[in-house]
User: Fold this.
Amino acid sequence: MTDISSRKADHIELALQSEHQSQQGAGFDHVRFEPNPLPQMALDDIDLSSDFLGSKISSPFLIGAMTGGCENGELINRHLAQAAQACNIPMALGSQRAAIELGLPQKLRSWAPQAILLGNIGATQLQTQGMDLAQRAIDSIEANALVIHLNPLQELIQPNGDRDWRLVLEAIQNCASTLSVPVIVKEVGAGIGPASAKRLVDAGVQWIEVAGRGGTNWASIELARNNSTRECEIAAPFLDWGMDTAELLPAVHAACPQLMLIGAGGLRHGLDIARCIRLGAHITALAQPFLKPALESTDAVIDKIAILQEQLRWSMFLTGSQNLIQLKVAPLQTE
Ligand SMILES: Cc1cc2nc3c(=O)[nH]c(=O)nc-3n(C[C@H](O)[C@H](O)[C@H](O)COP(=O)(O)O)c2cc1C
Assistant:
């Protein structure tokens, strides 16, 4: 196994352990809908459908970015892609860097011919390897959009992580103005706040996946992989670095009302999806909750998607929202 593949395999193993999930949650407990005991509709009348990048999708969530290239990455990706295709929900690929560098075949498009697929590259790789890498990531899976991930804390803790971030914004701006597909910028669990969102909008970015604090904790995962006592001591105060997803969404929405938001980071069920939509997200993304089913089978992923859809449907029924437009304005409890 190469260094990148073994790192990815470690990530999968550690992400499944509850100690590397935030214990505080993403702040969703404070987002409480006013119960509506008079839904005045049948559960079956509820329409979960949404649109994303010009296509209709069955429900407002996507499979968040996880694997690109590692030993069991192909199996995970096949299960996720086939489920995405069967359920008509989008799928984001994990970093494609390893697959591209190792020349691994990327069969995503053959498993999900019609699904919306999102390519993925780290911002620092883009900075050094430029548009060629971005274009290869897109072409290899006929991606509908390119996701660029920002993970400065993870890179600081990761042994040999990237510490030179001088030209990241310029690289993103270049992608946004040159590529033929939309660019989506995401974090990995610390969040993109209003000030950074404004800079990204000025750089031409139209989509942001906030990926706030409250779910998979990458500082904790990288600390578990780092054998240097000194580096662990330096990193310790940053274990809870970031902004909760429930706090981020309204703040970014208020600062950049025209920006399309993907609510992500710590969503664990369909009620969290409903809360993110209410807080201003256009759609949402869940990563870690799909990991266990993805290691099992395509059917297990399809089952997970159906459960999330049913939980979202219940949330909409219990708030009297027949569609997502109504859910966006469903009354919240005032504290
Ligand atoms: C096993 C695993 C691998 C991940 N790899 C990537 C990656 O390669 N690129 C990326 O942008 N995000 C990656 N992420 C981050 C997720 O896309 C997401 O932003 C983060 O885990 C927070 O969401 P969650 O709480 O739903 O897991 C990964 C997450 C997991 C669980």
The radius of gyration is 19 Å. The chain is about 45% helix and 10% strand. The pocket of flavin mononucleotide is lined by residues 11-12, 15, 64-66, 68, 94-95, 120, 149, 186, 188-189, 211, 215-216, 264-267, 286-288, 291 (CB under 6 Å). The longest strand covers residues 117-122.
